[in-house]
Amino acid sequence: MAKKKSAKLKARLPRGFVDRGPAELLAMEKMLSVIKQTYELYGFEPVETPLFEYTDALGKFLPDQDRPNAGVFSLQDDDEQWMSLRYDLTAPLARHVAENFETLPKPYRSYRAGYVFRNEKPGPGRFRQFMQFDADTIGAPSVSADAEICMMASDTMERLGIARGDYVIRVNNRKVLDGVMEVIGLAGDEHAETRLTVLRAVDKLDRLGVDGVKLLLGEGRKDASGDFTKGAGLGDAEAEKVIAFVEAGAETTDQTIENLRNLIADSKTGAEGVEELATMGKLFDAAGYTDGRVLIDPSVVRGLEYYTGPVYEAELTFEVKDEKGRPVRFGSVGGGGRYDGLVSRFMSQPVPSTGFSVGVSRLMAALTTLGKLGQEEVAGPVVVCVMDKDVDSLAHYQAMVQELRTEGIRAEMYQGNPKQFGKQLQYADKRNSPCAIIQGSQEREEGEVQIKDLIEGKRLSAEIEDNKTWRESRPAQFAVKRGDLVARVKELLAAQEDDRTKRSENN
């Protein structure tokens, strides 16, 4: 009987997740550095929270104990408590603040960057793991804290190279929408689920338009794939009042405020929200941000349940062409708002809070499109080739590597099979190495090493038509004294950097 072959394990990337290479990671690091500097300029300090939290700490807007995997990735630990991968960076911060409330300065201003996870259907541009970069102020009750974060969001966009006019920070207030909810009969805990559905429907205005939102406010909407999303079940009259609210924006802040006052005149909560917007408008004007950078806009409705006051979004307004030549816009690349009840869930006292979150991947894509953040060229290490495998020779090669590293030069000794020298140079090319160091027994006896400029070698080899000429010319390869190795490598790296700078300037 023939022995059954075991099936090989298939390498598969889970749906909704991506691998990231060095070029993308370096570009991300460059962008995050600018955001970090801007947040620190405003007095925010770093903090880090873990990827997992107890599910009940993530908030009532997330699954309850009967539905532990709805929207989040969850598991039970050894004492059968449900834990979930964090859905955002705000809920874990609330838990951290509550646990350390007595020792933290108040207001507490912090920032953090990290991956968050959504157990949702993946699709184009929708991932189950993505990075956010947040800044939050905990313990500041005045909307001046919200206004400051909006101004910081504006500064962040411009420091990243997004020109004024290519973005806008749109600001609204959840209390105003709560006033609308009161007017259409959706106040009270018994309507909490319907209110959340309304919020999420309006939050899709920029993507679905007014007609799409109307469907989600009513019976529901079927998307292009045939999937049906159940609506809020509002009647036509109630849906029209919600639409009137999101379309209340005018050319001036004063006119927008007046429109909102008229819409929610019968709601105390709504009136309070309008006056908070009016205060923020005056602060924006005093600081000079009402020149198109920051705009009061009733169409902004963040979809999460925990927002209790001002909400805001950073939206990119420039158009680009997709692969079919159609104009598209990136839309929102960040947002946030006031969440006064989130920390208070753990406390016996109210804790006012507000924060802003940048969607790192979407913002990176936008900056790349604008030419502000290209795929960074990753310079590889200097590769010291292994010509002889005896212990004494290996010790010589290792000494060269150490000398280069001591001087701050990335370097490595070739660790693959050294039988074929050409394979070593191919490896160095794939690593985008600036040069290779070559020393056989003859060079060692003469006290020399060969340095092969791989960057120049690629250029010259393109001009050589046959292998014989290539072997005879050994393009861009030269001999130096062993004691001059580090100095000559430094000179070569500096010359290559000058060439890259000149090419960049010419482009």
From TrEMBL:
This is Histidine--tRNA ligase. Belongs to the class-II aminoacyl-tRNA synthetase family. It catalyses: tRNA(His) + L-histidine + ATP = L-histidyl-tRNA(His) + AMP + diphosphate + H(+). GO terms for biological process: histidyl-tRNA aminoacylation. GO terms for cellular component: cytoplasm. It comes from Pseudovibrio axinellae. InterPro entries: aa-tRNA-synth_II, aa-tRNA-synth_II/BPL/LPL, Anticodon-bd, Anticodon-bd_dom_sf, His-tRNA-ligase, HisRS-like_core, HisRS/HisZ, HisRS_anticodon. Homodimer. Keywords: Aminoacyl-tRNA synthetase, ATP-binding, Cytoplasm, Ligase, Nucleotide-binding, Protein biosynthesis. One of its GO terms (molecular function) is histidine-tRNA ligase activity. Residues 29-381 form the Aminoacyl-transfer RNA synthetases class-II family profile domain. Its EC number is 6.1.1.21. It is found in: Cytoplasm. It is an enzyme of class 6 (ligase). Signal peptide: none annotated. L-histidine binds at residues 88-90, 118, 132, 136, 302, 306-307. HAMAP family: His_tRNA_synth.
